[in-house]
Amino acid sequence: MSRQYVILGASAAGIGAAARLRELDPEAVITVVGEEPHYAYYRPLLPFLIDGRQSLADIAFWPEQWYAEQRVRLILGVRGHRIEPDRKVVELEDGRRFDYDALLLAVGADSRIPTIPGIDASGAYPLRTIDDAERIAARARAALAGTAVAGRRGGDGVDGAHAVLLGAGLVSLKAAEPLMNLGMRCTFVVASAHPLSRVVDARVGGMVAERLLERGARLYFGREVTALLHDADDSVTGVTLDTGESLACDLVIVGKGVAPNLEPARRSEFACHWGVRAGLYLETTSPDVYAAGDCVETNDVVTGGQQVAALWTNAVSMAHIAAYNMVHGPEPGRMRRFPGVIGTMNSGVVAGLPIVAMGLTDPVGERYEAVTAVDRSAGFTGNGGPPGELGASAGDDASEGSGASVGRGVRAFRKLVFDGDRLVGAILAGRVDRAGVYRGFIETGLPLGPTLRAAAEEGRLTYADVQMRGQKPPYANYMPM
Amino acid sequence: MPGTDTVAGAARSAAPQEIYVVPSRCTGCRSCEMACAVEHSQSKSLFGAITETPLPRRRIYVEAVDTVAVPVACRHCDEAFCANACITGAIRRDSRGFVLLDDSRCIGCNSCIMLCPFGVIQKDETRHVAVKCDLCPDLPGPACVAACPTDALRFQEAGDFARSRRRTAAVVGAAAAGGVVAGPGGDADPDPAAAD
Ligand SMILES: Cc1cc2nc3c(=O)[nH]c(=O)nc-3n(C[C@H](O)[C@H](O)[C@H](O)COP(=O)(O)OP(=O)(O)OC[C@H]3O[C@@H](n4cnc5c(N)ncnc54)[C@H](O)[C@@H]3O)c2cc1C
């Protein structure tokens, strides 16, 4: 009889696993249950929906017919409720029940919504789903037409449409991009001392701040929003800061991070902590149930601690391994391992600045040594020329300034963080070529040795060095036996 | 177990053919880079290519290690991290097993560049898209391989490569024993990753 696979969650991890399951098992019955009423889509493209650069069809993961071609039974608009491992049955919210031979939890994460008075008002939205993006787009259009907030005429030094963003993490910054493109003024209210504080150091945070200011954004650092103001229709009219000051606005973006969806796992009594606990084979504490993507808490290969995965890349990689193990498990000898994640592994173009941040980018402690290099040359294009054009300098030269002025005129910046002979973190800004070569060392913890370390510090480390120095390729320990 | 599904994507075994590098044969002439850039230009001719704006870009990189030149090419990995990392669907594997980048879908986020352990995806800063090897779909085989004057690049099946390595090793062995003289450095050190 053909095997039955059930997947809860129909996004990067869920659909990635379904595709891989079909490759591995042409006969299997594959059922995917997704809460959102939409076909799977590239969630990171949501900002493009806001300013209309892309349509729903543009951001779709697969065209509609893919699901029929791949014989993936898709059940949308309903949540998986509880898993009964004893019976190997999963029950949906609407009472439907499905048998499974192996099940995948790929329920992802939801935006974290802080408990602030007024946070439920209309016009205050996170950015995580198509529905969020469409609400933001509609509100932005209304604001630009001057109809979002009745009777509002600018104020607070802002004329016209104004958005306040809570937090300046990656999602806030990505949400601001289309809003600024549309012509809205953006004000970031940030608890920390610089943007992207969870990802980069003060220096690169300063480079981002500088570019945001150039684009007309306003930035409040070390400030919290204590309440959202709204009118009688419960529509947002502004925010109050912890200083007592208030800012009138048409739209609030809630960018306070995400939290894994734990309900189905908790209800089914699987071990959870920050995320669903998954072992080396992405197995949960329930037999034949695996987990992948943003809902999972796994090993951080850099710190050795636990980490919520929270990245598209991780979601897809985990899904492929989990699918393999759903087919070949549960004997450990037949399964593939997921080595873990690098806690920080972010890439993007933020306010026009390309940034890659990996591993421990700003660790505290004497054991760590940071080596930085800066390029101010006017002719710098970052256009993939020969590596090694930045001037290297040992030690952290954060003394060049602080706050938003840090990094003025800097075209490219590189920071490598070493723990003894191991590379444990890196920030590449402005120019990011060959970032993956550095990532290989961070991921595997292989010692660089003096020659490779010198090449890395001078920014001329290439894969050829790794290969020709007789060193094992940095991914060699993931090769199958 | 055959390497059909490695985590960090190394040599693919299921793929029909791929580019193999024999570093010891490379003289650093960069003919491969040139041929690659020309094949990915609008005019597809050297003289046309050098006048184009933006300049066409190469997707194979001859890197220097001290005084030695080493070509590094895309392996179209089985578990292609670049494709897993692609947040727009621009990088996908096609039915032939080639890992291809559709630059009309690329938003230039650099995720693939961050993930590629070989450093062979780079950014076209003029068009704000990533560029990577496509194995020259309009040609019988990759332009870089055809252009290599010293046979340092080969386009063949994984199995073929291993077999031909053994054969070459036998020749080098014979040379060491006073027989045929092989090229500089002999052929005894193929790209260890590709030969894995
Ligand atoms: C604006 C934005 C930009 C981003 N940019 C990047 C980036 O540049 N790079 C990067 O790596 N990552 C990025 N991310 C993060 C990336 O989108 C996530 O890591 C990825 O979507 C995780 O995939 P997932 O399948 O694990 O979970 P999700 O995408 O969260 O999907 C989980 C799905 O399961 C559904 N679900 C929840 N509960 C249930 C249930 N009980 N039953 C059935 N279904 C359920 C949810 O509704 C959801 O549709 C970005 C995210 C956003 C919002």
Key words describing this protein structure:
heterodimer, A: 481 residues, alpha/beta, FAD/NAD(P)-binding domain, Enolase-like, domain 1, 3 domains, six-stranded antiparallel β-sheet, five-stranded parallel β-sheet, 12 helices, 27 strands, 24% helix, 26% strand, B: 196 residues, alpha+beta, Alpha-Beta Plaits, two-stranded antiparallel ribbon, 8 strands, disordered N terminus, disordered C terminus, binds flavin-adenine dinucleotide
Please outline the helices and strands:
The complex is a heterodimer of chains A (481) and B (196).
Chain A: E1 4-8, H1 12-24, E2 29-34, H2 46-50, H3 56-59, H4 65-69, E3 72-76, E4 80-84, E5 89-92, E6 97-99, E7 102-105, E8 109-111, E9 124-125, H5 130-144, E10 162-166, H6 170-182, E11 185-190, H7 202-214, E12 218-221, E13 225-230, E14 236-241, E15 246-248, E16 251-254, E17 258-260, H8 263-267, E18 276-277, E19 289-291, E20 296-299, E21 306-308, H9 312-328, E22 345-350, E23 353-359, E24 368-375, E25 391-394, E26 412-419, E27 422-429, H10 435-444, H11 449-457, H12 463-468
Parallel strand pairs in A: 1-2, 1-7, 2-3, 7-19, 9-16, 10-11, 10-16, 11-12, 18-20
Antiparallel strand pairs in A: 4-5, 5-6, 8-17, 13-14, 14-15, 20-21, 22-23, 23-27, 24-25, 24-26, 26-27
Chain B: E1 18-21, H1 31-39, H2 46-49, E2 61-65, E3 68-72, H3 81-85, E4 91-93, E5 99-101, H4 111-115, E6 122-124, E7 129-131, H5 143-147, E8 153-156, H6 158-176, H7 192-195
Antiparallel strand pairs in B: 1-8, 2-3, 4-5, 6-7
Bound molecules: flavin-adenine dinucleotide (FAD).
